[in-house]
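Summary for the lay section of the report: proteins are chains of building blocks that fold into shapes. Here we show the chain for PIPK domain-containing protein and then a coded description of the shape we predicted for it.
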Amino acid sequence: DHSEKYFKFVSQTPTVLPSVLVKVIGAFEVEYKITKNGNKETRYLMVQENLFYSQKVSRMCDLKGAQRNLKGNAGDVDDGDTVLDDNLFRFSDGYPLLLTEVAKQQLTRALWNDTLFLQSINVMDYSLLVGMVQQPSAVGNEETWTLVVGVIDYCRQFTWKEMAEAQIKRATVIQPRQYKNRFRNALLRYFMSSIEKYDTGDGTA
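The coded shape description reads as follows.
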């Protein structure tokens, strides 16, 4: 049970520690009866904040830092699809997602804090959910994109079950420290600072 550590961490975000964890609003135990046989079942549900509330998201990316392919090729990716790691670069013609230098630094600090915390409570298998919001630009007819990001699915702890599974599926189940390092390294490749600040206006940089 890591609830005490979790609430201590989130109480310091984002004022003290930059963070993009999608916050937990509540956890519920739900009991219900199956009509056919009369047996009672119990399910545990966790409710998190809506990362994309009031946002008109055109495309979503679910990024884990591993090779995961949702579609066979770039032409098969539709606007409504959630893009996984492999398809991210196919969708963007092989280029990483561009951020301003300030935004890249803020995102990096937040992800470093979040992944270090998640490792400390032995959690792995989380994702960075990215929503792409298209907005009209103030300059001409050009359009700009805003990225809305948050770390989700951070409830799976590395227990004896995962340890046993890691012996069978070495490439898919890894320990929290290894997962953190792979996640960080991948996201450094997925996001890049824009070079606009170095543009001299004469076509050279």
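Put simply, here is one thing we learned. The mean pLDDT is 82.
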